[in-house]
Amino acid sequence: MKTKEENFSGVKLLGIPMVIFNLLFTIAIAWFLVWILRNGGSLGDRLLAVLLITDVVLFIINIIVWTGFTKIDPNEARVMVFFGKYEGTMKENGFFWVNPFYARKPLILRARNLDATPIKVNDKSGNPIMIGQVVVWRVKDTYKASFDIDNDSKLTTGAVQVGAKAIVQDKMKAFEHFVKVQSDAALRFVAGMYAYDNMEGMDEKLTLRSGGEELNEILEKQLNERLALAGIEIVEARINYLAYAPEIAAVMLRRQQADAIISAREKIVEGAVGMVKHALEKLSAENIIELDDAKKAAMVSNLLVVLCSEENAQPIINSGTLYN
Fold it and tell me: 102-124: string of b/e by CB count within 10 Å (b at 16+)?
C-alpha cells in the first residue's frame, strides 16, 4: 500500500551547539539591557525607547528559540507539521534544534504486546467456543498513524498528567484500543471460517485445533489487512487459547471420549481378526491339527473373546469333547 510518509528535510541543527549559542545570546541580551540602563540619560528619549523595544524583541526571540529543541530516543519519531501541513518525519536519534513553529507530534515505534482476553465466538459448525490470541504490533507508517485514524490523546483517568511523555502514553493507548478492536474482529472472522475439530461426517482439511502455523498465518494476514489503515504492522499473531464454551464443554468432552473409545475398539478388533486369521493359516500350513468348520468357528470365537476383552481371560478346563 502506498505511503505518504517522507523524511523531514527542513532545517535541523545539532542541539548542543544551539544551546551554547542561545546561552551566549541570552547573556548578550542581558548585557545590552544593562548598557541601556547605564547610558539611558545620554541617549535621548526616542533612542532609549527604540533600544528598549529592540531588547524586548530580542528577548522574545530568545525565548522562542529555546522552544525549538527536541530529543529523539531510539525507536521513536517526531511527525513535523508546519501550520497544518505535513513536512516529514524525523527518526534520527539525538538532540536537535528545529524551527520552533513546527508542531512535533511524538510517536513510539517500539514493538508492543496485546494479550487479548478470550472471547466467545461460533465456529463454522455453529458451536460456541472460547478463543484468545497474542499479537505483537508496532507503528510502521507515521503518516497514517498520525493523520488517518483518530488518535487524539485523551486522559482516561482522573489524575492530571502533563508533559510530552504523558501525551505520548495517551496517544499509544488510543493505538492499543484500535488494535484491540480490530484484532477481536479479525479473530471472530477467522474462527467462523473453520470448525473447532473434525466430527463424524466432516472432512475438514483445516480446523482450529489442527491449524497450527497455517492458522496463525491466516490470522496475521487478516490483522495486517485491517490495521494497514492505521500504519500499524503485525510482527506476530498467535492463537494462544482454544476451548469449547462452558455450556457445551462437558457434552463435547463426552463426545470426544466416545469417539476415542470407538476408534480404539476398531483398532483392537482389526488387530484381533488379523491375529486369528494368521493363527488358522499357520495351523493349516504346518498340519498341526485338522479343524472342521465347527472347530474353526469355536476357536475363532474363543480367540476373539480373549483378544478383545478388557479383562484378562479366565481359563476353563473342558473335561469332555469339543462338542460337549
Answer: bebbbbbeeebebebebbebebe
Q: Could you identify the residue written with the cell 473434525? A: 198
Q: What's the CA gap between 231 and 228, in Å, rounded?
A: 5
Query: Amino acid identity, residue 251?
Result: V
Give the dihedral sign, CA 48/52/55/61.
Answer: negative
Cell numbers at residue 173, please? 493507548
CA 185 to chain CA centroid, Å, is 13
Mean pLDDT across the chain, nearest whole number?
A: 82
Cell of 222: 487478516
* Chain CA centroid to CA 166, Å: 24
- The pair phi, psi for residue 313, each rounded to 5°, is -70, 140
Candidates 3.30.420.40, 3.30.479.30, 3.30.390.30, 1.20.810.10; correct CATH number of 112-244?
Answer: 3.30.479.30
Measured CA to CA, the distance from residue 312 to residue 324 in angstroms comes to: 25
Q: What is the pTM of this model?
A: 0.68
Helix axes 164-193, 212-227, angle to 10 degrees: 130
For residue 22, count other CB atoms closer than 10 A to its CB.
Answer: 18
Give start and end residues of each alpha helix (H) in 116-245.
Answer: 142-147, 164-193, 212-227
* pLDDT tens-digit series, residues 249-301: 566 676 666 666 666 667 777 776 777 777 777 766 766 666 666 766 766 67
Report DSSP letters for 264-310, one per residue. HHHHHHHHHHHHHHHHHHHHHHTTS----HHHHHHHHHHHHHHHH-S
Domain boundaries, the chain: 12-105, 112-244, 250-308
